[in-house]
Structures are given as structure tokens and as C-alpha cells.
Amino acid sequence: MTRLHELLHPSAGTILISEWLTGTTERARAAADAVAEEWAAGEAPPARLSQHMFVDTAGSGLLHYAQWTSDEDHLAWAREYRGSVISRVDTRVPGIERPGLNRTRLRRSLVHDEESPAGVLVVTMGRPDAHEEPVPQAPGLLAEHLHVTTDGERAIVFTEWTDSAAYEASTSVATATAADPYAKAPHAKTSHAKTKTYILHSA
């Protein structure tokens, strides 16, 4: 899977992150294919620097990761074109739930290993104050990328792992050490946080 630091665009003024809930893996991939076809069929807006989709490994849906020059440029495009694009996708895959768009800025990017391929991307959404410190290094942890919404209310943390087994092992250690207030778990799940695992969708 392509690494996230390879996807980051230096000219991005905003990073837009959103979930589409589809319910099944088949519907998630069908929705991703429909979106990819929409991109290919139309002229890409100059202000959209890149756009990628990740498929939830549990089959619940998609995660969109788009980089634009600015929020204003994205809003101008959305007012004119988004409705028709969404309508065509919904015709092919009806019933997609869209909880909302997160307008974010990349606050921290730590790459521990630039060369190893990532087998899974773990995305955690929670309070910014719960993610002030970097995720402690653990076997299989390749990188961490912290995004914070423009209103300062939500942190979205992307961690890249060699595989799902390495991530699960880190959470097992976190659970085992939770009773010890002096133990620093490699990847503890905080309360009020939502965590999902994804892989990059290849159209």
C-alpha cells in the first residue's frame, strides 16, 4: 500500500477527510469505483491537488482523503458540481450514509520507517487533548500523522502499520498495562475515540 507521506502535497492549504458508510465491503468498493469513474470522466479542478480513498477492512465503508489549495476553492467547486456527482454515485450505490466533512490541517507527521510497505492504515478520531503526545513507537508502527479540524474540536490520527497483527499486538499491550498508571502503552485507545482500519483503494 502506498505510504501516506508519499501522498501528502506540499501546496495543500486544507485536507478534507470524510467517511461514507456503505454497510458492506462490496458496496464500499462499488462506491469507490463509482467515484473513481467520476474523477476520470470529468476535468479535475485545478484546486484539487489530490484525492484518495481508503476501504474499511471491516467492510463498513470508505474514507475520503482530499487535498485542496484552500477551503474556499473547495467550497466554490462543491456549490457548482458536488450535487450532481453525488447524485450519480447514489444512483449506482443507493443508501450511502455521509456523517459529514472534516476540514483539517496536518499538525504533526512522524515517519519512523520510510521504506517498509504499510499493510494497514489505522484512523482514530477523538479529542485533540488526547493526542498531544506522539504515539509511542512500537514494533510494526511505521508512521503517525495528526490532523486537527479547523474548529479545534476533533483530532484525526492516521497511523501506518506493517500489518494488522502488529497493530492488534500493540492494542493488546495497551489493554494489559491499562491498570498500571505508570505504564506507557504503545497504542492505547482513549475513551471517546473511534478507531477503524483501512487499506488504500486502487481503482
Automatic annotation (TrEMBL):
InterPro entries: Dimeric_a/b-barrel. This is Antibiotic biosynthesis monooxygenase.
